[in-house]
Amino acid sequence: MLLLIFVRKGCCICDSLKNKLKKVNLDNVYSDLKIQEIDIDRFDLYKDLYKKYDHEVPVIALKNLSSNQINEFPRVSPRIKELQLESWLRKHIKQLIK
Known about the structure:
Distance between the termini: 14 Å
Structural class: alpha+beta
Oligomer: single chain
Helix content: 25-40%
Largest sheet: 4 strands, mixed
Strand order of the largest sheet: 2-1-3-4
Mean pLDDT: 89
Shape: globular
Number of helices: 4
Order of helices and strands: EHHEHEEH
């Protein structure tokens, strides 16, 4: 599984969430979970595929590597703490992989 975080360079809310994600022990959330950051403004790479997130960043989604299916999570509060974020991720991943 791949945890995608859609961000925009220079977005303070995106930077805050990225820093919190770096502090989360992903093995406690889901085994073999990796994070991939996607800058939605890199249209040279993504060809507007993720421009739908223009006014929504940061967005967290889960990508199933075997099916390439991407499921977006509900919007996360910018005030969430690292321990809360770990529980929040665990809860939403569990809901998706039932």
